[in-house]
Amino acid sequence: MSKTNIEEINRNIYDIKNKDEYDYKIKKGLTKEIIEEISKQKNDPIWMKEFRLKALDVYNSLEMPTWGPDLSELNMDDIATYVRPKTGLSNSWEDVPEDIKNTFDKLGIPEAEKKSLAGVGAQYDSEVVYHSMKEELIKQGVIYTDMETAVRKYPDLVKEHFMKCVPVNDHKFVALHGAVWSGGSFVYVPKGIKVDIPLQSYFRLNSPESGQFEHTLIIVDEGASLHFIEGCSAPKYNKVNLHAGCVELYVKDNAYLRYSTIENWSKNMLNLNTKKAIVGNNAKMEWVSGSFGSKISMLYPMSILNGENAKTEFTGISFAGKGQNLDNGFKVIHNNINTSSIVNAKSISKNGGTCTYRSLVRVNETAKNSKCSVSCESLMLDDISKSDTIPTSDIRTDEVEFSHEAKIGKISDKTIFYLMSRGISEEDAKAMIVRGFAYPISKELPVEYAVEMNNLINLELEGSIG
Questions:
Q1: What is the pTM of this model?
Q2: How many CB atoms lie within 10 A of CB 49?
């Protein structure tokens, strides 16, 4: 793609801002009184209010992580943990307030729904403002709604699964999430139902000096299948914003789930998200992840292979520029026989950005005849960027096939020279190499989202190469 075409992309689309107008914004900080007020605003049942308060106690008892990026600039006294926009939940796009609707229109959400989605949820700050699903899925018994509605309408199903995959004492920011969570998506796919068209939730944070703490809970029952897409973005502010969402995925026996994410947070965002999946007998869990934006990211999706012949695949890419420290990776636990995992992680760093791949592979004694393959590649576009690979492999049985391959290097001068000898400019040659490097990830996404990811790569490259 030529330089002219790259510049034609509107780089400001993700930085559009609305006025910080809201129906209610809780005072900054994190106290018992604030948690009780959030619970009151959310009209929680008693069990959820008690859960929040216990989570706050756990949060206060846990230390800040010190093994990754520096989080010292995060001060919860400067963060508002709940912001309710000036609208309720609607299933008609026309009923969404004009300023919020325009934001999602510019991000392409309604258009994507018309072209390629079976259902859409759109969250703005702390609340889901729009939700819809095709009638044929409703008739098949598929449930796709916001988490607050799920807590009220499906309490038994929620209680059975809520923060059981990701326990509240997992780490400090999971405990924070348990105390202040708001919004998010709930999906239940009944036994044997194949959802052929993806569902998508999009999370947009608009309010400065605030946090977003959506909870996503997906249950794919026995023999069912689903592709779920998650998109995230926020405009840039001068003060820190915080994202500490939680994703819990249950892939039952003989089921299949693909979870695709394009995260494009602003570069004042601390992205401290947690995602886990529990995978049953003969079931398969696939992760596809693109991580852009955010000042700091600490995100390590995890598959727990509890069933015989359970499988998981992770395909992900991170892109860090100036002032960014993206500490991402993947974790997998093999708990049963004949389980398998494939990890393909890539990172690109430029202008002094830092990318770290941090992983855990544990094959327990009960996981004989299991297979695991890990490949991680890092590409640096200059002499001032940084890339690290920090794998942890905990293999507790001899009856296993395990391989780990890591490559870290600069963009190849020989390849650039070869392309230039074919009449391609140095700048375009570098751009071609980067897009080719990212292709294994983009090809795993639906067409519309592959285009979005490639556009993000083009935006990151603009002005940084050549």
A1: 0.88
A2: 17
